[in-house]
Write a structure and sequence with these properties.
Chain A is mostly helical. In chain A, about 75% of the residues lie in helices and about 0% in strands. In chain B, about 25% of the residues are buried. Chain B is about 65% helix and about 0% strand. Chain B has helices at about 1-20, 25-45, 70-100. The chains are: A mainly alpha, B mainly alpha.
Chain lengths: ~500, ~120
């Protein structure tokens, strides 16, 4: 089936459309949403298997020859990301059942989640720069709806800021596409990768590359452009926050990875140096925030920013270790952020607040939650057998092999701050004097805890069994380092 | 012609930035409208303004006379997207005005701790 790579986009799209027909039948909504996400996950795993065995999968829609139609390209990087995103949406849907509340479920919550999934999977799969813009708008539109969903005061206040920032970055995206089109005359990514090296005037291309960095940097929350993220992500309820934290910034990161390895390689001395410096500043800015707050949500939110910096630093090195490491770390980070938000969400529900100073002594009453959180926190910091370790190790190695050894030192040093910020939640919430907690039904607690534990278990497996995943990841890195593989696959059709 | 268009687009971007930096929410939304106009005109200009015939196949028109159809399709897509986003933004602004009782962005700051 040559259309296989469209399934992870089409299934959620169709399921979401069906779900819009009967908003009040909650049981049906839950069941169909769950089946839809499971089907998407199965399709994406089959897609990885197919790409791994048969090489890069390409569909040019409508059977037009390559640069004229819209190409959908699935190499191992996008395949892995689609699978990870589908996995996370599945767990978010499971976690939503006990937490999101019936009123929200009746107001098109699941359709919005599935439209977001379609947008994310589409953005990971597309091979056309304007089509990327459209898929980004699809997922942003769903995220606008989710961030204001429920209409609480704080949500309305923050969604205005979120909307404004994303409208500006979308307008800049259109402007950047316009400039790129006027220079190259094409929008297909593979065709761009062919045409850009033939253009002698690299100055204008460098300007466009930096403009794209600004556009995707707004989405990915890199250093001077991350200011919108902490406030906006603080407002929505926990499952939506987990969805945003795990997926939305990673689309920006993926777009930077794709454009900066596939076609903006004409002036690496400037663009990738800039990317490395910005990545390090992003890490430092995130560390300041992660230490400054006594709010469990804010601490994890600033850890998103740190992880974005680590991944982009790996990409900026343009060597095998750096890129392999950043792909591993990207997949790890998507899963661990969702798991941490799930666990922190349970803690916040039990105490009825997200303020660390009003917490304490949870380990006696909820030991399983405590130890699961500790494992996830160690995974986040990259303690050796866990999932954060292999990715960060390779990113650091890439930095030492590349020109930016000081960046690797910063990453190693800030790992301690990441560990401190995550363990501080453990110390304050789980140790110390027990404080009064809110009564929580056993069944609701179990319904929240089980998806979180399974997700943490998957991250542990991802860390311990990193050898198992390495062939996939190193194949993905090979395509990124050799754009000719990508170009040949697209034009072969 | 492209020079004149570039200057006009620059003015639109300038007005948009000025409006989006103001306090009142409705001025900000007008600013986003101007910003998307600027982006769409930029797309049209950057496609090249050569070719006077509309991009519809007709007898007796040389290929070089057609206007480039691709930017027009892109603009059409971008217009409906920005239209949808703007209408959503306007409704959120209306709801926020009802709930928060202000349209002044200066008064819309703070976190859960000090609402």
């Amino acid at each position: 089936m040559s259309n296989l790579l469209l399934f992870p986009i089409l299934i959620p799209l169709i399921v979401a459309t069906i779900l819009m027909l009967f908003p009040n039948k909650i049981k049906m909504q839950r069941l169909i949403a769950l089946l839809g996400t499971i089907a998407t996950l199965a399709a994406s795993f089959f897609l990885i298997y197919k790409v791994f065995n048969d090489g890069i999968q390409v569909v040019t829609l409508g059977s037009w020859p390559a640069p004229f139609g819209i190409s959908m390209v699935s190499d191992l990087l996008s395949g892995l990301l689609v699978a990870t995103a589908s996995l996370i949406v599945l767990f978010v849907v499971l976690y939503s059942f006990p937490t999101i509340g019936i009123k929200r479920e009746q107001s098109y919550y699941y359709p919005a989640v599935l439209f977001l999934m379609a947008g994310v999977n589409g953005a990971f799969t597309t091979g056309d720069i304007f089509n990327l813009f459209v898929f980004v708008e699809v997922l942003l539109m769903a995220s606008y709806m989710l961030i204001s969903h429920g209409g609480e005061r704080s949500q309305l206040r923050e969604s205005i800021k979120y909307l404004l920032v994303n409208i500006i970055s979308s307008a800049l995206f259109v402007a950047a596409v316009a400039l790129l089109y006027s220079v190259t005359g094409t929008l297909n990514m593979a065709d761009l990768a062919v045409k850009i090296p033939q253009i002698e005037n690299t100055a204008i291309l460098t300007v466009i590359a930096v403009l794209f960095l600004v556009v995707f940097g707004f989405k990915a929350a890199i250093f001077p452009l991350y200011f919108w993220l902490p406030g906006s992500y603080h407002a929505p309820p926990m499952p939506i926050l987990a969805l945003f934290g795990a997926l939305l910034t990673k689309v920006g990161v993926y777009a930077i990875m794709r454009t900066y390895t596939l076609f903006f390689t004409m002036n690496i001395g400037f663009t990738h140096e800039l990317l490395a410096i910005i990545a390090i500043l992003t890490i430092l800015a995130g560390c300041v925030g992660a230490l400054a707050y006594f709010d469990v949500k804010k601490i994890i939110i600033y850890n998103i920013i740190i992880a974005v910096g680590v991944i982009l630093f790996g990409v900026s090195q343009m060597n095998e270790a750096g890129i392999t490491g950043s792909i591993l770390y990207l997949i790890h980070d998507m899963m661990i952020k969702a798991a941490l938000f799930f666990l922190v969400g349970i803690v916040a529900v039990i105490f009825g607040t997200s303020n660390l100073r009003q917490m304490g002594g949870l380990i006696k009453t909820y030991p399983l939650l405590g130890w699961t959180y500790l494992v996830a926190a160690f995974g986040l910091a990259g303690i050796p057998p866990l999932s954060g370790f292999p990715g960060k190790l390779l990113v650091v190695q890439g930095g030492f092999e590349g020109p930016h050894f000081w960046g690797s030192i910063v990453i190693l040093a800030t790992s301690l701050i990441v560990l401190l910020s995550a363990v501080r939640i453990f110390i304050y919430a789980f140790w110390g004097e027990p404080v009064e907690t809110r009564p929580l039904k056993k069944s609701a607690y179990r319904a929240m805890l089980i998806p979180s534990i399974i997700l943490v278990a998957i991250t542990v497996f991802f860390g311990v069994g990193a050898e198992l995943f390495m062939p996939f990841v190193s194949d993905a890195a090979e395509v990124m380092l050799n754009p000719s593989l990508y170009i040949e696959a697209v034009f072969k059709e | 012609m492209e020079i004149i268009m570039s200057v006009v687009i620059g003015l639109l971007f300038m007005a948009a930035v000025y409006l989006m930096l103001s306090k009142s929410l409705i001025r900000i939304i007008i600013g986003t409208g101007l910003l998307s106009h600027g982006a769409h005109l930029l797309l049209l200009t950057m496609g090249g303004l050569g070719g006077n015939a509309p991009p519809v196949v007709a007898d007796g028109v040389a290929v070089s006379d057609y206007a480039d159809p691709l930017p027009q399709a892109l603009i059409l897509t971008a217009i409906v997207i920005s239209f949808a986003v703007t209408s959503f933004f306007l409704v959120v602004a209306y709801r926020a005005y009802q709930e928060l009782g202000t349209d002044n962005m200066e008064l819309m700051k703070g976190t859960e701790d000090h609402e």
